[in-house]
Amino acid sequence: MFESQQKTLANFIEEHAKKSPYSYEELALLCGFKTSDMIYAFAHSEWKVPLDKVAPLAKALDCDKGKLFVLALKSWFSGELFNQIEECFGAVPENSAERSWIVALREIYNGDVPEMTVKTRRCLKILVGFSS
């Protein structure tokens, strides 16, 4: 049912695994697996990535954790259910630059980002060098 999403995830993992300085065995160890069979199976659409292993896998592959998580979720859930999850938990930015801004704002405000006001928007524009 979710073959195309699984293939997209597998391609993403395989692409990053090929770029990685680590072997499949080393990647598996970094993720907490005992054998490289798991990494091979993920990269060849044989098994789905357990959601609790997305973060360690992203770290081991040195790839975008958010993108890997979205791809993993899409491989587990139908498009309709994924859209409902996305709606409930907020839109997932597709752009890494946008994600970086969001992460930076959360760091600056200790996770409690205030509402965007006219004054805040003006200050932000001044800060980044845009005129209104």
What does this 3D model show about the protein?
The chain is mainly alpha-helical. The protein contains 8 helices and no strands. It has helices spanning 3-19, 24-31, 37-43, 54-61, 65-76, 79-89, 96-108, 118-128.
Give a brief description.
The chain is 66% helix and 0% strand. The protein contains eight helices and no strands.
Q: How much helix, percentage-wise, in residues? A: 55-70%
Estimate the global geometry from the Cα principal axes: elongated
Determine the number of helices (DSSP H or I, runs of at least 4 residues): 8
User: What is the structural class?
Assistant: mainly alpha
Low-confidence stretches: none
User: Biggest sheet, in brief?
Assistant: none
Average the pLDDT over all residues and give the rounded result.
Answer: 87
Annotation, overall tally of beta strands: 0
Q: What is the element string, with H for helices and E for strands? A: HHHHHHHH
Strand content: under 5%
- Indicate the radius of gyration in whole angstroms: 18 Å
Distance between the termini: 49 Å
Descriptive key words:
elongated; mainly alpha; 132 residues; single chain; 0% strand
Explain the layout of strands and helices:
Layout: H1 3-19, H2 24-31, H3 37-43, H4 54-61, H5 65-76, H6 79-89, H7 96-108, H8 118-128
Helix pairs in contact: 1-3, 1-5, 2-3, 2-4, 4-5
